[in-house]
Write a structure and sequence with these properties.
Elements: H1 19-29, E1 34-35, H2 38-44, E2 59-60, H3 65-70
């Protein structure tokens, strides 16, 4: 099964979201549109059957296609 502990090599080189990224997203989207609560992130990155759990550092909720394109 796929989990954050057993990642295929293809996924190991992706950028990890850091505080600089969170600050950028917050400035762009506003504080209410950048969710960093761990429980919310786990819930949002878990599949319907709860078999696969991602490792999201944040949830972004842009309110326009313009903001999506800036992310």
């Amino acid at each position: 099964s796929f989990s954050t502990l057993n990642k295929p090599d293809a996924f190991r080189n992706y950028h990890q979201v850091n505080q600089t990224d969170i600050a950028f997203f917050t400035e762009l989207l506003g504080k209410n549109n950048v969710i960093t609560d761990r429980e919310d992130c786990v819930f949002a990155s878990t599949d319907w059957f709860r078999r696969y759990i991602g490792n999201a550092s944040c949830i972004l909720t842009p309110d326009s296609t313009e903001k999506v394109s800036q992310i």
